[in-house]
Amino acid sequence: MALLSSPEPHHLLVSFLVLLLSLLFCFIKLRSSKSVPTLPTEWPLVGMLPSVVANLHHFHDYTTAFLAASGSSFVFRGPAMHFFVTCDPANVRHIFVSNFTNYPKGEEFAAIFDAMGNSFFNADGESWRRQRSRVQHLMSSPQLLAHMACCCRDKLKNGLLPFLARMDSLTPFDMQDLFTRFTFDMTAMSVFGVDPGLLTTDMPPVIVPDAMEAVMDVGFFRNMVPASCWKLMKRLKIGPERKLAAAQSELCRFVTEMMEERGDGSVHMDEEQENRNVEIVSSYIHDPEYIDDHGKPNGFMYATLINYMFAGRDTVGTTLTWLFYNLIKHPHIVSSIRRELAPIAMHKANNSTTMVTFEPEETEPLIYLHAALFESMRLYPPGPIERKTVMTNDVLPSGHKVQRGETILISLYSMGRMEGVWGKDCREYRPERWVKEDGKLLYVPSYKFLAFNAGPRSCLGKHISVLQMKSVVAAMVWNFDFEMVGGYVVEPKPSVVLKMKNGLWAKILKRQIE
Predict the structure, then answer these.
(1) What is the pLDDT of residue 265?
(2) Which InterPro entries match (predicted)?
(3) What does the pLDDT look like over 446-480, one tens digit per residue?
């Protein structure tokens, strides 16, 4: 009661209740309407927010529909909300490349994703440049890249393939859960040098991955409501904000556990141990910026390590899930991938009891496999939306004027479904669009294919991630047949990471290769 008696929370609470009642009224009107307008309806007081709330269950497809109807760009107005939404490649190039410094992530972005602290996910300006330079140095280290490749190979041979072999009885299982476990373990091994063991015989609960998912789900919620609303909920510890607080505590507990398990409760190590450690955390544990006065990891290190976990887990795990969804639906594409793999596989042990695996250097030159991967990421980018803030007034290539402080939302999901960008067959999964007549991979500029970001913020882990995914897909496709389980809907969940709402349930059968 003491909290509500102060003027500011009381004012916010009244505003929140008025907004809630207005939203409820408009929502009922929208749900009772027989016609569903392509463009959001703008209401007094609450603007277009009720239309978004009414379509939140299929937000990404809804956004795609109104962007297609409005020429790839649209102005969204709501209570204390004013967003410019676009998927126009010319605008994307301007925002991400040509005029990059005018479009930082901004303070509100950092507040929305406060679980990431001041790490490079949230940072702008000099702090971002300094951190990115460090990540760039790390990702160019042959030792680290070899370690990451080893982590992937080990988890594939000793975790993923044995699990699939045990499931070789047409028993349904959730492929999304499987890839979540696989990529979580693989990423933790690369970051900490410790295997959390989520993909093991006993398949323990995925408590930490669930906490990571909660962070992204709440981040999406914060993007969709006025800042005053979610900040009040955070202060009162109610609704999604209560869930987020528990998730953040779980992530901190996980980092502490990993650091203790690897012997880094303190940063002091003997020379032999230091030489053994090539994982990511090793490059931070002696830096005064990342440790406190007692030699312990500080909040900045915690946020940075959590950032690495998100970067590694979400891109690979989400992409693999959607890729296999597409492959299962298109068996002729699976056959084409196998034909590309056959010359490599024929030189390996190949019988009913031996699993064939493929090294990164073997799959790297495979064009059709690469095309199948990128085509899936075009339609189902792991990060379906990006958010930017306008620093100074500007005019975009589309002719739209944006004002200082305005928020810009870029829909990667929608861009992959625009006829003006990808042609009449833009909604079809067709890897051939990535292959030129001479059989080489077609170059597509990053501002048109934004799955790995574009410009100065382009993903530094793109190359190693693609190699990892191609090796995993090759081994799974060569050794097993997959079949989708019916009776449920495959659709994206409303989040800033494109997870499947109901998972990806499939059956598996070991291939009989002669």
Answers:
(1) 46
(2) Cyt_P450 (IPR001128), Cyt_P450_CS (IPR017972), Cyt_P450_E_grp-I (IPR002401), Cyt_P450_sf (IPR036396)
(3) 999 999 999 999 999 999 999 999 999 999 999 99
Residues 6+ apart with CB under 8 A from 1: none
pLDDT range class, residue 26, cuts 50, 70, 90 = very low
Q: Is 21 within a domain?
A: no
- With H, G, I as helix, E, B as strand and everything else as coil, classify residue 263: coil
DSSP track, 88-141: -HHHHHIIIIITGGG----HHHHHHTGGGTTSTTT--HHHHHHHHHHHHHHHT-
In a domain, 22, yes or no: no
Tokens 């799974």 — which residue? 476
Instruction: Give the pTM.
Output: 0.90
Number of domains the chain is built from: 1
Residue 181 lies in a domain: yes
Q: Tell me how far the alpha carbon of residue 467 is from its chain's centroid.
A: 17
459 annotated to bind ligand:
yes
In the numeric block, which tokens belong to residue 243? Answer: 């869930």
Token couple for 153: 């190979």
- Element (DSSP H or E) covering residue 164: helix 161-166
Q: What is the CATH number of the domain that holds 154?
A: 1.10.630.10
Q: Residues 303-338: pLDDT tens digits?
A: 999 999 999 888 899 999 999 999 999 999 999 999
Range(s) of the domain holding residue 130: 37-260+277-509
Domain assignment present for residue 375? The answer is: yes
Instruction: Compute the distance between CA of residue 453 and CA of residue 67 in angstroms, rounded to an integer.
Output: 20
Half-sphere exposure of 78 (CA within 13 A, CB side): 24
